[in-house]
Amino acid sequence: MMFEQIARDAAAGRFNDWALSTVIDENAQSPVISKAEFFRLHAAANIAATWPIGNAGLLHVYGYLLSKVVTPFGLKGDRWRNGELAGQLGLAPAEFLLDAADAAGETVLQRVTGSVLPHLARPARARGDVLVFDDEVPGETTFFRTTVVSTPGRSGAALVYGVCHGGRMRVVTVFPLAHPSPVSLDALAAEPPRMRYNAALAALPPRTPLRRRH
């Protein structure tokens, strides 16, 4: 089922809405999937990739569902399986399950993209975007955007991260924030600007220092 969905995503061009990422998790300091799985995913999507940098949609959605690597925050795929992240985005708990998407004639990547890309491309308070800040590549128009989404009546929040490059916003990742207090959000915004959450660019490696846009 997963690889059938990947094929449909590829045919529809949906991976173009996702940026680049390294498969080496910055918290676990190890690959979240094997090299064989990395290349199998990219082959299924007909995307050329050079280990360890690949398409963030493949790695952060389908790769995380395959991953058995335990990180300090648990299994990567839990964000899609346990319904918490979906709820924090105001969606039904089963929204990001493979079989639920398939039953509706959709894909998990399609649903994730449709849910999070607007929070990056057009953030707005009315949409629940309670924190938005941009960190730019010095001397370039490329910038990375962090948006924290809080849905009224739901505990926790979701952090959406993406990059605008060549005038187009693309998703890097999205994950749940369990305790998004004002203090924790202030601390998040005060962290030194850099590329985060395993993001990569063709010309820049992960964790490259950036500059806050004002």
From TrEMBL:
Superkingdom of the source species: Bacteria
Protein name: Amino acid deaminase
